[in-house]
Amino acid sequence: MRRYAGFLFLFLLIISCEKKEQVGMIKIPPGVPAFFKSDLPRPFFTEQDYLTDMYWKAWELLQQKIRQGTARNGFAESYLDEGFNELIYQWDTCFMAMFAMYGGSHYPAMASLDNFYQRQREDGWICRVYRESDGQPAALPTAEDPMINPPLFAWVEWKYYLLTGDKSRFARVVPILHAYF
After folding, report:
1. How confident is the model at residue 2 (pLDDT cuts 50, 70, 90)?
2. Is the residue at 101 inside a domain?
């Protein structure tokens, strides 16, 4: 009898230590675009549904931040905009692009950077803030504020290459980045 009790105890101990099945951990919210289900990376959180909810909410919010360029501003056909005001910011655009590139062609991550590159002056300067209305710099550089940021563009381009293996942008953007810094 003790032998059976020991076996039963061991059996119950083994069963209780097994990992729980991850049922429902990749839930996708209803009403989102079809590509959310097929093309976006899927998170796997154990027993933290709120993290999964926050993850999908981030993609939903990004979807709402896609804007269309106009003939007046000369921006890319589609680009990412933080939506804070009527300006596009280099810093915000770079970090949004680093997230958006995981969405593949569904998000205009790299086209958003091109909005800044195409406005580079002959001396290499690229403003950190442009007006969405007309594509002009929000302010011109001064000795006190040169209106530039650290080399975030290079970081985003490198990350894009590491993620996609796409070298095609280098021939065009390396000269821009070299002139910028």
Report:
1. low
2. yes
